[in-house]
Design brief:
Blueprint (H helix, E strand, L loop, with lengths): L2 H6 L8 H16 L6 H10 L25 H4 L3 H20 L29 H5 L3 H4 L10 H13 L3 E3 L6 H14 L7 H24 L14 H14 L4 E5 L5 H7 L5 H9 L17 E2 L5 E2 L5 E7 L3 E7 L9 H13 E2 L7 E2 L4 E8 H6 L1 H7 L12 E7 L2 E2 L2 E2 H4 L16 E5 L3 H18 L3 E6 L17 H7 L5 H11 L5 H24 L27 H10 L11 H8 L13 H14 L4 E5 L14 E2 L6 E2 L12 E5 L5 H13 L4 E5 L10 H8 L2 H5 L6 E5 L14 H7 L6 E3 L4 H13 L9 E5 L13 H6 L5 E3 L12 E5 L2 H10 L13 E6 L1 E3 L3 H10 L5 E9 L5 H9 L7 E7 L10 H16 L6
Parallel strand pairs: 2-6, 2-9, 9-10, 10-14, 13-14, 15-18, 15-19, 19-20, 20-22, 21-22, 24-25, 24-27, 27-28
Antiparallel strand pairs: 1-13, 3-4, 5-6, 7-8, 11-12, 16-17, 21-26, 23-25
Helix pairs in contact: 5-8, 10-20, 10-21, 11-18, 13-21, 14-25, 24-29, 25-26
Length: about 950
């Protein structure tokens, strides 16, 4: 048998029994996805077609093939079944090295990780010898092998060097073939083609020395003060330097960063450019610098800005010029000790920086104009649910940003908790696999590998517009903070750490061995860095007398009292209303919805009534016509949970969508509305970040039910309500929280009004609970008018549910054109005879409508039998309208009792907030009492008949003249 004749015969004829079955399985896999089959086998299928048993009409050779004698030519070897199996096995070995090589990677600086089972990446597992591998051409198992690699042994060795030395690559979970192949090429060829220059290496060493000396200088100069040092993950700073350079070069004009407090001061000074003297001054003038501190994270060492925050929570800005014309602005977000909760804030910053909101329609996002970098802790990345929520933004139209660079500053500890106690996954980064994010594990003690990983991450982001994660594995040189003794919980680790050199020393030795620097040069770099630090400290001490401690009452300025015109003439509202009811030719709206919306056509005419949904649509449209962009998001915001909005319409025949807000002729700015993922904390955080970055935009977050805002409580507590006084962050964010007792149980009733009132102080919020459509119209327009000014505050709206369609809430069109937002509303038809009023009821929200219904008004007037009663609706709860309340109480000299009536239990709702404010404004001897549900642990009953009975009792007691104390 000659070589030529063998080449013309199908190799499948040489297989039988189990070997043929194996080829059949490989062919089925090849049909499903050719790339899942090893290259050599794929080539055989492409050349020879299917094996005989799966080929129609073929005869299967059930007998062993004749022994083939060879003369050493490759063409004959290729048809030797034993040789083919070795090729297949070598291909499996290559695949395993690519998939599991990270398990054997040398990226654990302290050698803390138990030795993994790496048999899957060893030739012996496949019974492959060196001779076997030497006899296989490299191209058969590695299609893109460099010319210098000719056989399988060299290929395997090179791939093991790539996948098991400096880098641990995890790309196998990426489904997109082009992405996976690109990542593989970068790992196997691309990284080696971009070595650092001598100048870059020396600059990297200088940076590591600066990082190290800054921490040790603080440690010596300010003994006992916490700083949450970076030591052990020193390479983070040069990594961030590299990200800034790369994304700025790619055109980013904004770089938005988020991180927790470990390493923050180092990042602030070296990446954000905060002067050494500024940081030293904060330590030097810390009010507690001489105290024996506990290892906590309390507000110690305050850097006062308004009421202030600890210095390791603070953010900063820096502008960096790239060449002559390009300027990039770096922003590090402020962050409380709630660690990963800054993640969605940064994502919101970034999308706001990318969106062009200047034209009607959806904003146009330029993902290249801004980039996000988030630095995570290893325990927090695995443990905090907000991480998964934020990663989920990756491909969502309203939230994506063209790729975030994630870096885990992995120090192997969470406070005192070791990895084995803090996560169930092998790596801290494993969560990212579910979102198909490429992962590279590198050692913090290998700064060149860290820089190479950053370059890969930035190139991937630039090419594919998706997230990338770098797991930088280091350690924590001190305890949780510098006052904490870590040897009480990790004695063996810290005994080892005392002998472990810092990253700058390790890298300096490496460069000296390779001839890039001398010992004299290294010492010169150290002397130079130390001199800068000492000079900055001397400056602070010399200026000590000039330092002025801020006063405790130096807080944000109060809002000025001024009238804001929010009415819109009917002649302007009418064409806007008409435009809102126009859809494209051929666009077929659901018949029922079409009829409902078309009813709005005549509501602005005399005798018409504007309901809640129409009032909102008109408010949005007029705000857009004033040139203010709007962004609205929530789990059902396109139609609204209670189906009153329907601001995005669907064609019943093809499901195409259309929003009249996008074609409104009067609009001068963008309108974005997005159904959000089923999450609250991350989405509210995103919207808060979006609004802080773009304060001129009316940003609205709508909870599906107000109760679900509970899930966003960290964002509410740490950012929305306190961001202004802690960090001087100004926000006009609107939160729509459906609230009202309808008998729908404890999770569908209360937006926890009491919590917001407890958080209200220092003029930080506006909290409302309204009872008319016109009030909502004017409220939205008032909020839009103060955006971007010092008057702006977050607006908390106890939004209605059943009231949305209640006729009592609908408004006369004149109230939209001539009115304004009223802090309080008095019940029409009551209180006309001031001297006869004996009971004054104050209430808010839905309770007021329930009381009105019980009055059985005729033509808007109450019967004379109600002369003894007056009802006042407190529409704005905070800031409390004390002047209005005082004036109303003063009008009724014969009032014997003042009631606060609410639907919430006594320990919830507004009672505890309003009671002292009302009591302080009534005459001596006047009774002030509460009517409502008794104190309860659950907000509402789950039984509708009990709810109805309780609500009837509240109304009955409130309106029964005989029931007085």
């Amino acid at each position: 048998m000659t070589a030529d004749s063998n080449d013309r015969k199908s190799p499948w004829e040489l297989y039988y029994g189990p070997n043929l079955g194996y080829i059949e399985e490989m062919y089925e896999q090849y049909l499903r996805n050719p790339d899942d089959v090893d290259p050599a086998v794929r080539e055989s299928f492409e050349k020879w077609g299917p094996p005989p048993s799966v080929s129609a009409g073929s005869n299967v050779n059930v007998f062993p093939p004749l022994k083939v004698t060879t003369d050493g030519s490759n063409s004959i070897k290729t048809v030797d079944p034993a040789y083919l199996k070795k090729i297949v096995d070598a291909g499996k070995l290559v695949r395993n090295i690519r998939t599991f090589g990270h398990l054997a990677a040398d990226n654990d600086p302290l050698g803390l990780t138990p030795a993994p089972d790496t048999r899957l990446i060893e030739p012996a597992t496949f019974k492959l010898t060196d001779a076997d591998l030497e006899g296989i051409p490299a191209s058969l198992i590695w299609e893109e092998a460099p010319e210098s690699i000719s056989n399988g042994k060299q290929a395997i060795q090179h791939l093991k060097d790539v996948y098991t030395k400096s880098f641990g690559f995890e790309f196998a979970h990426i489904h997109e073939q082009d992405e996976r192949l690109w990542l593989r090429r970068q790992a196997e060829i691309g990284m080696a083609s971009k070595p650092m220059t001598a100048k870059e290496r020396i600059a990297l060493l200088q940076r590591l020395i600066d990082v190290e000396q800054f921490e040790t200088f603080l440690h010596r100069s300010f003994v006992g003060q916490k700083r949450f040092s970076i030591e052990g993950t020193d390479s983070l700073v040069p990594m961030l330097d590299e990200v800034v350079r790369e994304v700025a070069h790619d055109g980013a004009r904004h770089i938005l960063m988020g991180m927790a407090h470990r390493g923050r001061l180092n990042v602030l000074t070296h990446v954000l450019g905060k002067p050494y003297a500024s940081i030293f001054s904060e330590f030097h003038h810390s009010p507690n610098k001489d105290q024996d501190l506990f290892p906590s994270e309390g507000a110690l060492g305050i850097n006062i800005g308004y009421t202030g925050d600890v210095k390791y929570h603070l953010g900063a800005h820096r502008s960096v010029k790239e060449g002559e014309t390009v300027e990039t602005r770096i922003t590090l977000a402020n962050n409380p000790s709630h660690l990963e909760y800054v993640n969605p804030i940064v994502e919101g910053f970034t999308r706001a920086a990318q969106d062009d909101r200047s034209k009607p329609g959806y904003p146009v996002a330029n993902f290249g104009s801004a980039a996000a970098i988030i630095i995570h802790g290893d325990a927090a990345f695995a443990g905090e649910g907000i991480v998964a929520e934020t990663l989920n933004f990756k491909k969502l139209a309203g939230y994506e940003n063209g790729g975030t660079i994630h870096i885990i500053a992995n120090n192997r500890l969470g406070f005192t908790t070791e990895s084995k106690d803090s996560r169930s996954t092998y790596y801290a980064s494993d969560l990212a696999k579910g979102y198909e994010i490429p992962i590279v594990h590198v050692s913090a003690d290998d700064p060149e590998a860290c820089i190479a990983a950053v370059r890969m991450a930035c190139e991937y982001r630039q090419k594919f517009g998706k997230d990338f994660l770098i797991d930088m594995i280091g350690y924590r040189r001190h305890g949780h903070n510098e006052t904490d003794d870590p040897e009480t919980t990790q004695p063996l680790l810290y005994q080892k750490l005392r002998k472990h050199p810092v990253a700058s020393v390790i890298y300096a030795e490496r460069l000296k061995e390779r001839g890039f620097v001398t010992e004299e040069q290294v010492q010169a770099l150290r002397r130079e860095g130390l001199a800068k630090l000492q000079a900055a400290l001397d400056e602070v001490k010399e200026n000590d007398k000039a330092y002025k401690q801020p006063k405790a009452d130096e807080v944000g300025s109060k809002r000025r009292k001024k009238d804001i015109v929010t009415g819109v003439p009917l002649k302007k509202l009418a064409p806007i209303n008409e435009a809102l009811l126009q859809w494209p030719d051929g666009f077929k709206v659901y018949d029922k919805l079409d009829r409902i919306l078309k009813r709005r056509a005549n509501t602005l005419n005399e005798g018409g009534k504007v309901d809640w949904g129409q009032a909102e649509a008109l408010a949005f449209a007029t705000i857009l016509s004033d040139g203010t962009p709007i962004r609205l998001s929530g789990q059902d915001s396109e139609r609204a949970t209670f189906a009153f909005r329907n601001i995005v319409l669907h064609d019943v025949e093809n499901n195409k969508t259309f929003s009249p807000m996008h074609t409104l002729p009067q609009a001068k700015a963008s309108f974005a509305v997005h159904n959000s993922p089923l999450a609250e904390a991350s989405v509210l955080g995103f919207e808060y970040g979006y609004n802080v970055f773009s304060p001129e935009t009316l940003v609205i977050w709508e909870a599906q039910y107000g109760d679900f805002a509970n899930c966003a409580q960290v964002i509410i507590d740490q950012f929305v309500t306190a961001g202004r006084v802690k960090w001087q962050e100004k926000s006009g964010l609107v939160m729509l929280l459906p609230h009202g007792y309808e008998g729908n149980g404890p999770e569908h009733s209360s937006a926890k009004l009491e919590r917001f009132l407890l958080l209200a102080a220092e003029d930080n919020l506006t909290i409302v609970n309204m009872t008319s459509a016109s009030q909502y119209f004017h409220l939205l327009r008032r909020q839009a008018s103060i955006l971007g000014t010092d008057e702006a505050r977050p607006l908390i709206v106890m939004a209605p549910k059943s009231l949305i369609r209640n006729p009592s809430v609908a408004s006369d069109p004149a109230e939209l054109s001539d009115g304004s937002f009223k802090l309080v509303l008095e019940q029409p038809g009551l209180g006309k005879k001031a001297d006869k009023v004996e009971r004054l009821i104050f209430c808010t929200g839905k309770m007021a409508i329930d009381l009105e219904a019980a009055l059985e008004l005729k033509d808007g007037q109450a019967a004379d039998a109600w002369d003894w009663l007056h009802i006042v609706r407190v529409e704005q709860l905070y800031p409390f309208p004390k002047t209005d309340v005082e004036q109303i109480i003063a009008r009724y000299p014969n009032v014997k009792e003042v009631l606060w009536v609410q639907e919430e239990p006594q320990n919830m709702g507004a009672w505890n907030y309003v009671e002292p404010r009302i009591r302080a404004r009534v005459k001596a001897g006047t009774t002030v009492r509460y009517i409502g549900r008794p104190k309860r642990s659950s907000p509402a009953s789950g039984f509708h008949y009990i709810h109805t009975m309780e609500q009837q009792r509240i109304v009955s007691v409130a309106l029964n003249r005989s029931k007085q104390n």
